[in-house]
Amino acid sequence: SSASLQILASMPSRTIGRSLGAIISQYCNRTARLRRQSSRPPLQQLCRAARPSLRHYDLETDPSRATLQEKRHLLVKELLSLSPSQCSHMLLTMPLGLAEKRILRQQLSGQRGPVRQRARGWAPSSPCARSRVCVGLVSQRHGSAQRLGGLGAGSSPTALPCSSPQGCRGLWYRLLSLLRAAQPGHYALKQIGGRFGSSVLSYFLFLKTLLMLNFFSFFILLAFVVVLQAVYPAASVSPQPFTGLELLTGAGCFTHSLLYYGYYSNTTLNDPCTSSPEGSVCPLPAPLLPYNLPLAYLFSVGVSFLVTCILLVYSVSRSFRESVKSSTGDLAIKVFCAWDFKVIQRRSVKLQCENICTQLKELLAERRSRSRSQSRCQRLGHGLVVLLAWLLALGWVSGCVLAVHYLLEHMHTGSGRWQQEAILLVLPLVVSFLNALMPHLFNLLAMWEKQDSPVTQVSVAIFRNLILKTVILSLLCYHWLSRSVICSTEECWETCVGQELYRFTVMDFIFTLLDMLFGELIWRLILEKRLKTKQRPEFDIARNVLELIYGQTLIWLGVLFAPLLPAVQMLKLLLLFYIKKTSLLRNCQSPSKPWQASRMSTVFITLLCFPSFLGAAAFLSYTIWSMQPSETCGPFRGLETIYESGKRWVLVLEKSNPNITWFAWVYQHLLENTCLLFFLSVALIAVIYFNIQVVRGRQRVICLLQEQIANEGEDKLFLMQKLRSVYEQRGR
């Protein structure tokens, strides 16, 4: 009603938005106070409120108000007394329209013109002074341009040297943007997020996380083990000819190479007396820093796992923190605050439009799925269908496990070399075929279940595939630890396990490419050419994410037996990134049910951390503490366990230098003490539990605050109705 509009118009927050003279008077007083201060405050301490209050300002409360033109002239006069950077910042924070700011800038430039002309008569006396003045002006202009929005995502000005803090800050921000743009797939990730949404984007971000983890592991092993063994090579074995089949089997000429455990020596690398015969006296002195390769091998693997554990825990905590930020108010934020006005290039503008549109679809679909309700009979029927689907899925998993077990029991080597290498490929071929086939059968079950929420559908598919891969990997680990692996030309069982894990990695990559070929490209051609439809296959997030977790688990299982497996995984992930991106953009369509993947990213990292990483760590821990190494090859030959090499090194260190007996005491009472490891594990689990509880507490606080905001809105509506009734009574 008109009465409510009058009451709203008389509120202080609405008055400053309507009165242009009030805004100019307020900022005139602000610039006057800033100019009168003896020490000017930094720009970060200035008020950035868009709708400030008008109280306690002399010009506004003065009964003899000045006209708008006089106030504008006075504001321009006060702005001229400030530095150019402060003047630009003040104009930027004013809640005025673009037309009014343009008028103020024209008046400022018109009055600064004569001042500059008068300043042209002055020139620095020395070349150094002239260059210093020029650099200062250029840096000042660069900093002002960035604060005014000139350094957007689509603009590309030249980063120049700086002599002021603002210019240095602008140069630093520009360098950071260039470094981020130089990352592999930077623009591709934006394009995928704009066209397919955050659900598909989460797969590629997860792939980049795996690439980072493998890079750190590869760098540690390369720096402390592989390079030093290459500098001091072991005794050479007669080389075998390269036939090309080694790229699939990992055997042949790859067997006696840096790729596998059996090639590495068990001596001190830089000791000149290592090659001397036993019983002879070595005339050369011992090195000052002896490099014990078995110890370096063991510690490098341990440090790589420790760094991976720290990065995974950090990723899980950060993902939990980001998932808490998502709330029901995201829709209003996307509608009113999502556009970035610094984007000016046509391609960037189109990409940002697609991204915002896809995010709005996701938010609306999530809100629509919450509002749906079913009757009791519908819920009961749906529950029976889900139960039958789970029974079928578990039956299929049991059949796959029995098939793999039967193959392990009845697999024998052939007589010829080609027959042996062909048999070596049978087990990885069958396991990779089952891993590629079963997700499609699980998708048929999902179509029968008809889950309403796409998040629930993806979660169910992930856990079904996880059960399949976990059971098969557990069976394979038991098979490897029982030393029943098939060796082609080597009796070193560690090398045979490394070769088998290499074959599993290569075969998994081949079946991933075949799945993209038949499941995406050929299926798209059938839909377009034969069926004459515009529909395309959708990107299966659950299957692709589980493939990444499965491949990374194979790498963690084989780090001890093949130190260069992280390099193979890095090459595989890079190829997968660009091949998957190309296939996605050309063959797939956006999800038919858009959904947000803020919590699914947390699920991906959690699955990578707990079943995958902890399972691989338990497998390697059992190998190090309990399994006897090979007698003829490897850095730990002749020992009862791999862990015994650390004990021997501590005893040798204690005998050679009695001053560091404290280190032996620390090793015996801290590192060998199982109680300490138990307490550390309990402390880690407690920290993770408390962090989860804190996250849940913050979620509850967010829900309570949202309810409080809704209640305050109802209170304001109630007060407005009361005020309107009072105003109408006074009008009568």
From TrEMBL:
GO terms for molecular function: mechanosensitive monoatomic ion channel activity. The chain crosses the membrane at residues 205-232, 295-316, 380-408, 423-446, 554-579, 600-625, 670-690. Residues 492-598 form the TMC domain. It is a multi-pass membrane protein. Keywords: Membrane, Transmembrane, Transmembrane helix. It holds the Pfam family TMC. One of its GO terms (cellular component) is plasma membrane. The keyword Amino-acid biosynthesis does not apply. It is found in: Membrane. Its main location: membrane. PANTHER family: TRANSMEMBRANE CHANNEL-LIKE PROTEIN 6, TRANSMEMBRANE CHANNEL-RELATED. Belongs to the TMC family. This is Transmembrane channel-like protein. It comes from Agelaius phoeniceus.
